[in-house]
Specification:
This protein is mainly beta and 392 residues long. It has three helices and 23 strands. Strand 11 and strand 12 form a beta hairpin.
Length: 392
């Protein structure tokens, strides 16, 4: 009897030991919340601000980018939660300093959220829009973005959130970064003097006029864009600038001798320019032929692979870059310049020639003497014959 009792106690003890080991094992196998790593984390995204053509001396202006949030709707919400009581989200901004090259990394832009902001469980959607600025040469992001905030209960039955930024649609591809670009070009003005009377040490006066572009704001209204970084150039060995922060016209005058070139650097896309030389066709100004303007760097589709050449009074206007082609009227013709070229060049040629009075060429003297002797012979023969006729 005692022997059997011992066996029963031993079996019970073994069973209790097995249970004490197995219960924690069952607890560990309980599924964890699959969103645990995303809970209560900021819905960050990265903003990049890059320079197009940074090898030509371009410098992007300092810029502040702003993002606005608009309520779209709420789904899977508990009773009483609607778009009307969705919380508003404040604008977020990020700033970049002026740059001469792309930054090594973009700016992290956090969208700070809190579960306590929201009235209850649900999936809240906001449209995120980058505010369109007015800086010439800067492209602003126009792709639709959406912030999706999911309010849920975690494994401890606590209310928490998961936030995510998407491109195009709320359930589309998640974004890692949003890219903005600054694009600028150059304009080189060269002088060439030709002809046997051309003055190659003379200064020729050239005027270059830059006009700031226009753009469209978020409401579709036309606005004047601002050139926010200086345009630089070197004239007579001195570095000069067209100061920043203007939205109208800027005119500079340069003096060029034969084979000299002045290059304007960091002209934002969309800016137009005109190049006009002083009139040197009058006697007082030298009596040169009408100047010709030979432009390169424009679209091959427009000029069929050849550089357009214009007469003196047909001043040339051309848009540097820009997404919208610029129509410029020259004389009675209209040309369309595309945005495919960013380094423009104009060569202004002044020609002055004269017929040189060289007198009689010594090389022709023997022939003239022979001609003269032949004439004398002919006259002598004619005179002798007339005398003979008179005697008869």
């Amino acid at each position: 009897m005692k022997k059997n009792l011992k066996k029963v106690l031993a079996a019970g003890l073994a069973a209790s030991m097995v249970l004490s080991i197995s219960v924690p094992a069952f607890a560990d196998e309980t599924p964890r919340n699959e969103y645990e790593e995303f809970l209560n984390k900021p819905a960050n995204f990265t903003k990049e601000y890059n320079i197009v053509n940074d090898n030509n001396g371009s410098k992007s202006p300092a810029e502040t980018f702003t993002f606005e949030f608009e309520k779209v709707g709420v789904e899977e919400a508990e009773e009483g939660v609607t778009i009307d009581n969705m919380p508003s989200i404040e604008d977020v901004t990020t700033e970049f300093a002026a740059l001469t090259a792309d930054p090594e990394e973009g700016n992290i832009v956090p969208v700070n959220l809190a579960a306590s902001m929201f009235p209850g469980i649900g999936i809240y959607t906001y449209k995120v829009t980058e505010k369109v600025g007015d800086t010439a040469g800067v492209t602003y992001n126009e792709e639709p973005l959406y912030l999706v905030v999911t309010i849920l209960r975690d494994s401890d039955d606590a209310i928490k959130y998961v936030g995510a930024i998407h491109y195009e649609t709320a359930d589309g591809e998640k974004t890692g970064s949003i890219v903005n670009e600054y694009s600028a070009g150059t304009l080189a003005v060269k002088k060439t003097v030709t002809g046997n009377m051309g003055e190659k040490d003379r200064d020729f006066n050239v005027t270059v006029t830059f006009t700031a572009p226009t753009g469209v704001d978020a409401e579709g209204k036309e606005v004047d864009l601002v050139v926010r970084e200086a345009i630089t150039y070197t004239d007579d060995g001195e570095t000069k600038t067209i100061a920043a922060n203007w939205n109208d016209e800027k005119t500079v005058t340069i003096d060029l001798k034969h084979d000299e070139t002045v290059t304007f650097i960091n002209i934002p896309y969309g800016v137009t320019y005109k190049v006009a030389e002083e009139d040197y066709t009058t006697v007082e100004k030298g009596g040169y032929d009408a100047a010709t303007y030979n432009y390169t760097g424009v679209s091959e589709d427009v000029i069929n692979g050849e550089s357009p050449v214009y007469d003196f009074n047909e001043t040339k206007g051309m848009a540097i870059g820009g997404e919208v082609a610029e129509e410029i009227e020259i004389g009675n013709s209209t040309f369309v310049f595309e945005d495919s070229c960013h380094d423009h060049r104009v060569e202004i040629t002044n020609n002055k020639g004269a017929i040189v009075d060289t007198g009689i060429s010594l090389d022709a003297l023997p022939y003239l003497m022979m001609l003269g002797m032949s004439g004398l012979g002919a006259l002598g023969f004619a005179g002798k014959r007339r005398k003979e006729e008179d005697e008869i």
